[in-house]
Write a structure and sequence with these properties.
The complex is a heterodimer of chains A (324) and B (329). Chain A is 57% helix and 9% strand. With 324 residues, chain A is mainly α. The longest helix of chain A is centred in the middle third of the chain and has 37 residues. In chain A, 45% of the residues are buried. Chain B has 329 residues and is mainly α. In chain B, β1 and β2 form a beta hairpin. The longest helix of chain B has 39 residues. Chain B starts with a helix and ends with a helix. The chains are: A mainly alpha (324), B mainly alpha (329). Chains A and B meet through α5, α9, α11 and α12 of A and α1, α5, α6, α8 and α10 of B.
Chain lengths: 324, 329
């Protein structure tokens, strides 16, 4: 079970890393003749077995979004061309749309791969920042004790009570709505870290507070180690296992938070492919029934969350995650 | 007990005040204000009038004081977007959200707890299937469930796609209106309840397994009790404690989840109202929604604590001992 989870995660990360090579089309390229085009299945049989090919698609009715495959003309896939693993050039009967196209005729599969980069990197950066801040605050509270501990613990508990989604929404909404993607990235990272640290801090505080009474810490202090050295060298490493578990809980939560914010139009600008901005396509309910492939990012999020859950369940530390 | 309640009420009040005040100040200090909604051709007099109406011509601190003074009399100002007092708008949206959240909580409880008892106390295919199903449901957060259900509804037409009532529905009363709401309810409730039911199932299964490992369970078996009685009458009671602790936290998850579900399924609840208010910088509506959210949170944690007290006699004893000490001191 654990293996399966790790395999799935590795697959997603590889796909994101190799996006420019794996994607058959550029993510921003629009194919005007392929608005809401269905996927072009890769076939193997046409008058006998042959190399993988597709049938070119033709618009029958743009209004009804009906497409027809030209089953008389198999178009072979082109491997290792233009720095891409596989593609079909426009002239030869393309495009190759493995997961169909969205409302602007952009390749969903290519955007999914590129979107994974933004979504995953944002989630990873936010997780690291949240762990860092949480470990620092929890470590200080647990080590110092007294008034500092009381104040920091109260603060932690207060942030923990707030419903994360609303706080993220409020913090993002009070910023200017239109921002360049890099700024949005930094802003979302900061907001997510701000929401993620209390869980980490509470656990780290408990571990550090119990650990500081142990002999090895007392010995370190007797030898003249400063509090910061004690924290960095002895106390925080003791919380390593806990931090690892928290990371696996925060990562999917942040992926989801990005998706939610972008879905409601408060995340990245619609031109940047992320799993959240791609899901905006699904907001058009009346067209959703005819184009289920625009839900592909939802499936991708599901795969990541499921993989993480499989990994964590496999270690026997069943997570109870109430608020992604 | 009464001192416990008094302390909790004080905490609740503080929570509501802090949350709504910070929302007010946040909305006030954010770049841009509600006059942007008037459009580019609004006259200077109109803009000045709007600013005066929402106290934007005062400085933030004095605006907060004015607002607090009014809020103490349960007047929360007007909404720019709806051109109506905030109180009615927020109460109405909160009621809609409460219906959604309570129905989801009830469904999650009714589905999650019994399945958790089965999965935690038995081995075999049935338990394995439940475990696998809840692992899948845990991985489908409300955003995905609601999108998926809307898609299912769009293709099958089994449910209305969204909203709380049909356009043709009669006024907000009467059995016809109730029936209409009941038809619209299942989709958002299911979307919200599935992940929470899975969480309950996992927790309950774990708690039952832990309880069955304790000596008292062995003793009960040794006394000749049937497996059914050991699980339902002895182990389950002990397992209630971790579960009740989660009910208090579940309110936060319900609120966060209901925002997404309300957005996707166009349910006219607090989440949608908050979103609209934030986007338009409708300052008093933002503060009103935040206050209502604070009330929900405080209620949730209060109910969670009361449940804990009801489930665990040791906690009751401790609370009684504490309050006794205080009286003698």
């Amino acid at each position: 079970m654990r293996r399966a989870g790790q395999g799935l995660l590795a697959l997603v990360v590889l796909g994101a890393a190799a996006a420019p090579w794996l994607a058959p089309n550029p993510p921003d390229r629009t194919f005007p003749a392929a608005l809401y085009a269905p996927p072009t299945p890769v076939r193997l049989r046409h008058a006998g077995l042959r190399a993988p090919f597709i049938y070119p698609q033709r618009v029958v009715s743009a209004l009804e979004r009906r497409f027809e495959e030209d089953a008389t003309r198999p178009v072979p896939l082109q491997w290792f061309r233009d720095g891409r693993l596989v593609t079909v050039p426009d002239a030869g009967g393309g495009p190759l749309l493995l997961l169909g196209a969205d409302s602007l005729g952009r390749d969903t599969f290519s955007r999914l791969l590129y979107g994974a980069r933004t979504s995953l990197v944002l989630a990873a950066a936010s997780t690291l920042l949240a762990l860092l801040v949480g470990a620092l605050i929890g470590g200080i509270a647990g080590y110092a004790g007294g008034v500092a501990d009381e104040t920091l613990s109260r603060l932690t508990d207060f942030v923990l009570v707030l419903p994360a989604m609303y706080v993220a929404l409020a913090l993002r909404a009070v910023m200017p709505l239109v921002l360049p993607p890099a700024t949005v990235f930094a802003l979302l990272t900061a907001i997510f870290a701000l929401l993620g640290w209390p869980v980490v801090a509470r656990g780290v505080r408990a571990i550090v507070a119990s650990e500081r009474e142990r002999e090895y810490v007392v010995a370190g202090r007797a030898l003249g180690a400063t509090p910061s050295r004690l924290l960095a060298r002895y106390l925080l490493p003791a919380a390593g296992g806990y931090l690892a578990v928290q990371a696996t809980l925060l990562l999917p939560a942040f992926i989801l938070a990005e998706a939610t914010l972008s879905y409601v139009g408060l995340g990245f600008p619609a031109t940047v492919p992320t799993w959240g901005t791609m899901l905006q396509e699904a907001a058009n309910v009346s067209l959703l029934g005819g184009a289920p492939w625009v839900l592909a990012p939802a499936a991708a999020i599901f795969v990541v969350v499921l993989a993480v859950n499989l990994v964590v369940q496999g270690t026997g530390r069943a997570p109870v995650q109430l608020e992604p | 007990m009464s001192s416990f309640l008094a302390r909790r009420l004080l905490f609740a009040l503080a929570l509501v005040v802090v949350v709504s005040s910070s929302a007010l100040l946040l909305a006030r200090l954010a770049p841009g204000d509600v006059t942007a909604e008037l459009g580019p051709f609004a006259g200077a007099a109109e803009i000045a009038g709007t600013r005066a109406r929402f106290d934007l011509d005062r400085n933030p601190a004095s605006q907060w004081v004015v607002w607090m003074a009014r809020a103490a009399r349960f007047e929360f100002g007007d909404s720019f977007l709806y051109n109506r007092p905030v109180r009615g708008l927020v109460l109405r949206a909160a009621a809609n959200t409460a219906v959604l959240a309570l129905a989801a909580l009830a469904l999650a409880t009714l589905v999650g707890i019994p399945l958790g008892i089965v999965a935690g106390s038995r081995q075999g295919t049935g338990a394995a299937v439940i475990r696998a199903a809840s692992l899948v449901c845990l991985s489908v957060p409300p955003l995905l469930t609601s999108l998926l259900l809307v898609f299912v509804a769009a293709t099958t037409r089994w449910f209305p796609l969204g909203g709380m009532t049909s356009v043709a529905a009669v006024g907000p009363s009467g059995p016809a209106w109730l029936a209409d709401v009941a038809v619209h309810l299942p989709l958002p409730v299911l979307a919200l309840a599935l992940p929470i039911a899975a969480t309950f199932e996992r927790l309950q299964a774990q708690a039952i397994t832990d309880a069955l490992r304790q000596p008292f369970a062995l003793a009960a078996v040794a006394r000749g009790l049937s497996a059914r009685d050991v699980v339902l009458r002895h182990a389950w009671r002990v397992s209630l404690r971790p579960l009740c602790g989660v009910y208090g936290l579940a309110v936060g998850a319900l609120l966060s989840g209901s925002f997404v579900v309300e957005f996707v399924t166009a349910w006219p609840g607090l989440g949608r109202l908050t979103y609209e208010a934030l986007r338009a910088r409708d300052i008093y509506l933002v503060a009103g929604c935040a206050a209502m959210g604070g009330v929900f949170l405080a209620l949730g944690s209060l109910v969670g604590d009361l449940l804990l007290l009801a489930a665990d006699p040791r906690l009751r004893e401790a609370a009684r001992a504490r309050s006794g000490e205080r009286q003698t001191a």
